[in-house]
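Changelog note: in this version the structure field was regenerated for every chain. One regenerated record is shown below for reference.
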Amino acid sequence: QVQLVESGGGLVEPGKSLTISCVGSGFTFSQYVIDWYRQFPGKGREFVASVNPFGNANYAEFVEGRFTISRDNARNLAYLQMNNLKPEDTAEYYCTAWKELGDDYWGQGTQVTVSS
């Protein structure tokens, strides 16, 4: 059974940091690109960051150097480290695993709330 499970979300004050995680199972994690998306209430999901199987990353413009995506293929884990969080970063964060000509998988999301 394929699963992607996010964790690590929560309430954090503006300017603070938070790292969220995503663990995969039931598929060959190391062969898949891992993306993070986020979704605001009543809106569609927006791309945040991506890391390919070799560890090469790219980011949405709004990240502005504040977030770092990484992965540990040996443990089937991906991370999104978020620094200098802003209230506008408040959203549900999702990880997805995909590869060309293959299936794509989504987790159930983890809520990040940035508020004082």
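Spot check on this record: The CA atoms of residues 11 and 113 lie 5 Å apart. The two ends are 40 Å apart (CA to CA).
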